[in-house]
Amino acid sequence: MNTPQTNKGLHMQLKKIAAATLCAVGLTVLTGCNAADEASKAPVAAKAPAPFDASKPVAVVNGIAIPQSQFNVLKQERVAQGQPDNDKTTAALRDSLINAEILSQAAVSKGLDKDPAMQARLALAKTELLAKAYLADYVKAHPISEQALKAEYDKVKSQMGGKEYEVRHILVPTEAEANKIIGELNKKAKFEDLAKKYSKDASAANGGLIGWAAPGNLVPEFSNAMVNLKKGEYTKAPVQTKFGWHVIRVDGVRDLKLPPLDQVKDQLRADMEQQMVKADIVKLRAAAKVE
Q: pLDDT tens digits for 263-272?
């Protein structure tokens, strides 16, 4: 008897077979297979046809033209993913578009395009593509300047502070439990042993060790207590955060060395763009009528 688990396994196996089949016929437009690799496996021409005339379709399948613009978009995506821009890839992508058109026509002839679920997927795909297009256009129209990058870098650097701390902690649900642990520490119990015994944090297995951390990377209540400790000291009163009650010990202090701006510029720009996009979405949503 098939169980839900065996049915799930069969479903996954069928999905793998389907994906492999699509790759085998060169249908990279749907699967994202490596066009250069699949070109040697799929039944495609050994060489790409003559350079495409932008005014003519890539191919005509049963009277339906495949526009050159579709090929251009697909090729641009594949090259951006690192695939080579050569005749072999061009031939594989062209063949992929032809196969996709043939299968699409076959699906329409069977009425699959009328299926409500399929219509919902097509509508969703259009919505998602347009949303991505809007965001890409917004980012392009609002470039992050070098001056803004430098200002953000200086801001983050200031928030991080000039020191970083090697820190351990014991996290418990109540203040009473934290006070009990502090009492045991006062009696010379080992911090690491108490962390393994009582802490509810994932760091318990390592004796409560979080590692080296800058104040700006931690919640304020925790970091404020941490920076007031010297090497080897632990908090004499429990520290409350949104996670629970902490007993904190500092094992080391050293100067914080942040990477130079040039090394983090790309990541910083991406983070700033993400925040900018989030702010625009909030603004658009506030102006939208959502019922």
A: 999 999 999 9
Structure tokens belonging to residue 48: 């790409």
Q: How far apart are the first and last CA of the chain?
A: 47
Q: Is residue 203 a contact partner of residue 209, using CB atoms and an 8 Å limit?
A: yes
What pLDDT shows up at residue 50? 46
Give the whole-angstrom CA distance, residue 146 versus residue 158.
Answer: 18
Q: Taking the mean position of all CA atoms in its chain, how far away is CA 193?
A: 37
Locus of tokens 């080897």? 232
State which H helix or E strand residue 211 sits in: strand 209-213
Closest CA to 164 of 210, 122, 201: 210
Distance, in Å, from the CA atom of 168 to the CA atom of 248, rounded to the nearest integer, reads 6
HSE-CB of 145 using CA atoms within 13 angstroms: 3
DSSP, collapsed to helix, strand or coil, labels residue 170 as strand
Total residue count of the chain as it appears in this document: 291
| Beta sheet of 163-172, edge-to-edge order | 209-213, 163-172, 244-255, 239-241
What value does the mean pLDDT take over residues 180-206?
A: 97
Looking at residue 193, its pLDDT comes to 97
Query: Amino acid identity, residue 240?
Result: Q
Q: How far, in Å, CA of 155 to CA of 149, rounded? A: 10
Maximum Cα interatomic distance, the chain, rounded to a whole number of Å: 88
Question: Hey, what are 159's tokens?
Answer: 């928030």
Do the beta carbons of residue 9 and residue 70 sit within 8 Å?
no
**Residue indicated by tokens 């439990």:** 177
- 154 contacts 147 by C-beta, under 8 angstroms: no
Beta-bridge partner residues of 273 = none
Cβ-contact 58, 71 below 8 angstroms: yes
Please name which of 171, 254, 277 lies closest in space to residue 219, comparing C-alpha atoms: 171
